[in-house]
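Recap quiz, item 2
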Amino acid sequence: MEEMILKLKQEIIEVLNLEDIKPEDIDNDAPLFGEGLGLDSIDALELIVLMEKNYGIKLQDPAKGKEIFKSINVMADYIQKNRTR
Amino acid sequence: MTGRSVLITGCGIVSAIGQDCGQVLDSLLRVRTGVGPLKYLKTEHTEFPVGEVKLSDEEMERLMGIAPDTPTTRTALMGMIALHEALGNAGLKADDLKECGFVNGTTVGGMDKSEQYYLDFIENDSRNAYISTHDCGSCSEMIADRFGRFKMITTISTACSSAANAIEMAADMIRLGEADIVVAGGTECITKFHLNGFNSLMILDHEQCRPFDAGRAGLNLGEGAAYVVLEEAGHAAARGAKALVRLSGYGNACDAFHQTASSPDGEGAYLAMTKALKEAGLKPGDIDYVNAHGTGTPNNDESESHAMMRLFGDDLPPVSSTKGMTGHTTSASGAIETVICILALRNGFLPVNYGFCNPMENGIVPNMDLHKGCKLRHVLCNSFGFGGNDSSLVISAVE
Amino acid sequence: MEQKTSVKVLSAKQITIQNPLCEDWMENPLSYSQDYVRAVDPDFKQFISAGDARRMGKLLKRALATSLSALQEGGIENPDAIITGTGFGSIENTELFLDALVREGEQLLKPTQFMQSTHNTASSLIGIHTKCHGYNSTYSQKGFSFDSALYDAWMQFRIGRIKSALVGGHDEMSPVFSGFVRKAGHVKEGEICSEAAVSVLLAEDGDNAYCTLEGVRLLDAPSEGALSKVLADMTADGIDAVMTGMSGNGENDSWYGFLETMLPGVPLLRYKPLFGVNFSSSATGFYAAACCLRKGCVPSVLSVSGQPVECGKGILVVNVVEGRHYSFSILKPSCGR
């Protein structure tokens, strides 16, 4: 799981172009949206693309993304349970 | 409005609900939608209803007398059809154009061809002529040059408010005496590029769109073109041109909130409408109808609803979005909807908000009845673009 | 209606193939042998946080940095209008989206790339960043884009709607598209295909202005008579020189031939050998002229003849695009510098 979390963080950093951020800068339980990393609705859309591209998980409803992308741990957990790739 | 008076002495349109003003009027009066399954664009995403112009590129080329191998784009062809009608409507010939300006609104330009020939652009020289048709400015030149040589051409590209901004810029030119006639409007065809772009933003509805409806789920893309001939009042009188309506005010403001979403309180929309009314010397109570931007996205309709309620208070006039019939024609929408407003003013009816069923919570309830025979004096037409580029026009009846 | 006859150019900032956000080019210009050169970027962190920058391609970063820099120098936080010209928009992100669409298909495309492909992204980004609710517009008319934006700003001042305006000309050029523009003839033989971001702050009032702007005219395929009249109107009080879009390419330069006939003896200047060619080149010409007036001298590197040129009466900036679009703007020295 730890390896998967590290990979996920690297993917998020790359896809969202978070140039100055390293994986160790992202707390696994900190909120990703609003405060914490301060991501917004467009970032959520990019993460939806990432989920499908890298893990084969298709999210039709962007609103559902809010719950899944709550934190790295929540996201990793969801991926673990639902990935098809 | 200070300065010289701006009339509209001609208009032309091509859209999903008709290929000229007469057909569009007919569709509006029959409340007939042009939104339906994809027919012309070659795309995987056939799940999205769209408002296509019911003409192939080849059919449009034939209509405009363009030789088959001439490099043209769908956006330019639609623009030509609409401009052809507008110029004819205003009684303007090729020779008259050297005293006229042309301000066009478009964002996709020639992307319909670029997306087809992109790999050729890179790998060989077989489609080089289409590199020159890619950008917005070239599109405007192609449209204008089909009819003669205008004295000034430029292109505004502010996404969904492009055509409205074009009309505003043209009006400024007339008021300042830069020209006595300026033709303005916009054109946009559906491309895979922006169909997929809007899909990536997840704001397309898989069903017929429902502006201002509680269950609305997004927009349906449309395409088309429309132009209005703006003319200084004295000049129109001197040449015996008939005024269709008057452009009595307009306003442009920036929402300054987000690149793709509108602010919850609709500040930019509110400011644009307020500025337009102020320039027209009118109060909110003077407006008899609002043609809303009303895309059918949860965000726009809430924001715009809020802004209208702020502006009009208890005195809200009938409001409708016509995008349920035309689709969201993006850069062309400001002009297409201006022409719809002109048709409503001149024929005495209120366009219906096709697609609406259930009222939003705390939102406006749009107009669902034609009210044939009504007398409209002043109409407000809203166009709000990505990036918070908000524009409103006040169009008024002439005696 | 009150007709304004002049506005002040409070500041003008550039990020181009010359050293950015400064006027080093006047004394120590960078020179290039390549025919495609990308802009020299400053450290954007002084203007834009990493978080904000994540969603900005080069054009947007440059547009924002030059804008903030111009606003800072000009001492205005919220301009009444933000008007931009761009010929291709954020072409790099447009290309990324288009490339993925064409090569990989219509699934899993990136919204951030698409968002930047609407040409008004720069204008709205500056509006969002400065929290400006004022007039906001974007022009896209190839090499006439900045000129159109400037003309609109001029009209807004004349109509009395605004007291200040931030006017920009921004174009970037990706390696792939640099090939396309050569094929299409937008960049000609002997010209450097380049990038430019220029932001100019105009205002009715303000101290330490670079110069004043006293007129903007746009014409399409004008007759000789019309050209002659515009030149006469705009140079009525006398000028030192004409800043032209001459580049050294024969076809391009032939479009400026009328100047030697109609303004005989008036020195001609050119900026394209320094700043290269792109759809926002005319903005660099305007910027260069403003800098000359501010400094009170014209560097010899701008002079077509190589001879020194006086700078006390004013400079006429002329842009001719494809031999059909003509723009003229007249800049005069600012009093009380």
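The mean pLDDT of chain A is 90.
The helical segments of chain A are 2-15, 41-55, 62-68, 72-82.
End of item.
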